[in-house]
């Protein structure tokens, strides 16, 4: 009887997934994103079944998340999943309106709707017509919208003439353009917690609101999304295509974060294209102030670009070299804010924002889901701090202080040259990974994030009047918690072990048929394949045979030559 129930339950889940996704043109979306993201040595594109997570080994910590029955039911309905199934799996009390569940974590990287559907608000009534627009745009269009307003053509300019209806005929230029990124703030987060973001809900009526914006590249990751917002480029050109790259050596899976060179130092040359800020700054003789803030370096760098390490330019006979911009992130070991001094500056304002001291100063006013007794304890719980109201409040306050220090106090707000401010409110991402974006913890952080955006907006109105533009968007969405979606988890460790079963047993810990893999792209070691007479087809079959909990993990694999040109 138990087996029959399990079979019935799995069939309900599978049918639901098929109904919602098989008819959605998912293959075309995947192939288009893959074409725009292919690296020179990419051999295969990997597409998992919906809700499945291909990532590093699951985190050791299990988190207790809290949920509202009503919100969970709405989320399940959006994904064609069954409340009855979840109720049975979790053994819930039918009378409880709120309940809790131990969960591991979720992630994002696919081209499925929950990872790619993002909102975009563009506020600036002088330059932008108010309205809710159904036009499909990607993050890559954002810099070109800025370029249109500033009459500035940069290297990665994309044609935005089809958006002509949103632009007003205004010749003056804004004193500042501020880009706010709500990390992991895809539409799934807002659908889950209606009423938790009153400011952003109201902003729809005061801005150009794009309700069909989406991530147009693989992978839907922080580094890639921020690069897209900062440069207007796709990964095939920028070469920034994942948060990290996985390789195999001496029987171990290794991973290298983006922008980290061979000696674990910074390597900004990994980004092969200039950012909008790089080019705008030089075009105005380094007069614009450039600020880019996020607690994660890969986000701050992706928006700002190369800073002082950008290539010089020549105007007539004059050579203009780039300067250091204000680009900074958190140094977890020291619970402070830091930067890469060869390229960037930190504002003096960061001195007031030691993480532990900030925690102590605001502990009484913030109700949170963790407690730290000293700095060492906070370091051990840093992901919980970053996924809390503390982080949201700190991010907004530090950004405003930095704008005050670098622009207002230096009278740059009245020099007629547009400054650029980028800030990522990333607590929504951290809480989403740890607790799930469906949780009450995520709702609490979303409320705090909405409040910080409102405070930034009012700060800009007070200090810049109507001479500013503010854009709010996201870098990606995220998958539902596997405990909710019945999604599967596959580690890179198991992935490498499985593929390398094709090698002679004596070679499996010495070499790998996979030269590198991210989450959606893979490169093969052709020399090793030739040596042991292993075909690409054999590797594809091996990957497609991977099962977790007796269910197939990957839905489709494409060879490089099977990815057609489906560009914009």
UniProtKB/TrEMBL annotation:
Gene3D superfamilies: Alkaline Phosphatase, subunit A. InterPro entries: Alkaline_phosphatase_core_sf, Phosphodiest/P_Trfase. It holds the Pfam family Phosphodiest. PROSITE patterns: PROKAR_LIPOPROTEIN (PS51257). This is Type I phosphodiesterase/nucleotide pyrophosphatase. It comes from Leptospira kanakyensis.
């Amino acid at each position: 009887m138990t087996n029959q129930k399990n079979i019935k339950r799995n069939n309900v889940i599978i049918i639901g997934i098929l109904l919602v996704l098989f008819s959605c043109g998912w293959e075309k979306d995947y192939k288009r994103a893959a074409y725009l993201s292919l690296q020179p040595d990419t051999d295969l594109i990997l597409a998992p079944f919906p809700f499945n997570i291909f990532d590093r080994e699951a985190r050791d910590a299990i988190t207790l998340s809290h949920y509202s029955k009503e919100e969970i039911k709405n989320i399940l309905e959006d994904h064609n999943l069954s409340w009855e199934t979840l109720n049975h799996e979790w053994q819930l009390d039918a009378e409880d309106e709120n309940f809790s569940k131990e969960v591991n974590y979720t992630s994002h990287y696919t081209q499925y709707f929950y990872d790619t559907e993002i909102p975009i608000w563009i506020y600036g009534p002088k330059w932008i017509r108010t309205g809710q627009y159904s036009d499909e745009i990607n993050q890559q269009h954002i810099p070109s919208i800025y370029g249109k307003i500033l009459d500035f053509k940069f290297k990665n300019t994309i044609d935005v003439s089809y958006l002509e209806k949103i632009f007003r005929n205004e010749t003056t230029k804004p004193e500042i353009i501020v880009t706010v990124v709500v990390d992991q703030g895809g539409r799934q987060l807002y659908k889950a917690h209606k009423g938790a973001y009153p400011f952003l809900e109201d902003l729809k009526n005061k801005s150009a609101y794009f309700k069909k914006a989406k991530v147009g590249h693989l992978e839907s990751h922080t580094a890639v999304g921020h690069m897209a917002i900062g440069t207007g480029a796709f990964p095939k050109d920028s070469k920034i295509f994942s948060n990290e790259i996985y390789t195999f050596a001496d029987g171990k899976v290794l991973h290298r974060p983006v922008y980290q060179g061979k000696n674990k130092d910074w390597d900004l040359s990994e980004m092969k294209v200039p950012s909008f800020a790089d080019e705008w700054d030089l075009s105005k003789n380094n007069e614009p102030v450039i600020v880019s803030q996020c607690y994660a370096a890969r986000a701050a760098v992706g928006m700002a670009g190369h800073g002082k390490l950008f290539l010089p330019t020549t105007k007539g006979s004059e050579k203009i070299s780039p300067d250091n911009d204000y680009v900074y992130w958190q140094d977890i070991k020291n619970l402070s804010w830091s930067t890469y001094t060869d390229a960037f500056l930190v504002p003096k304002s960061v001195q007031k924002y030691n993480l532990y001291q900030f925690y102590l100063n605001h502990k009484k006013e913030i109700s949170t889901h963790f407690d730290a007794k000293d700095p060492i304890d906070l370091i051990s719980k840093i992901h919980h701090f970053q996924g809390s109201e503390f982080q949201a409040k700190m991010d907004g306050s530090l950004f405003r202080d930095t704008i005050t220090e670098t622009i207002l106090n230096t009278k740059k707000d009245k020099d007629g040259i547009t400054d650029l401010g980028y800030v990522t409110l990333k607590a929504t991402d951290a809480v989403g990974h740890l607790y799930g974006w469906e949780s009450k913890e995520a709702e609490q952080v979303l409320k705090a994030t909405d409040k910080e955006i409102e405070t930034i907006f009012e700060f800009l109105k007070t200090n810049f009047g109507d001479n500013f533009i503010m854009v709010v968007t996201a870098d990606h969405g995220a998958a539902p918690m596997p405990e909710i979606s019945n999604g599967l988890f596959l580690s890179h460790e198991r992935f490498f072990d499985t593929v390398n079963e094709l090698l002679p047993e004596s070679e499996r810990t010495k070499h790998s048929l996979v030269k590198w893999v991210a989450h959606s792209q893979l490169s093969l070691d052709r020399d090793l394949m030739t040596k042991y007479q292993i075909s690409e087809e054999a590797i594809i079959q091996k990957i497609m045979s991977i099962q977790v909990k007796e269910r197939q993990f990957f839905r489709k694999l494409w060879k490089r030559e099977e990815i057609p040109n489906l560009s914009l």
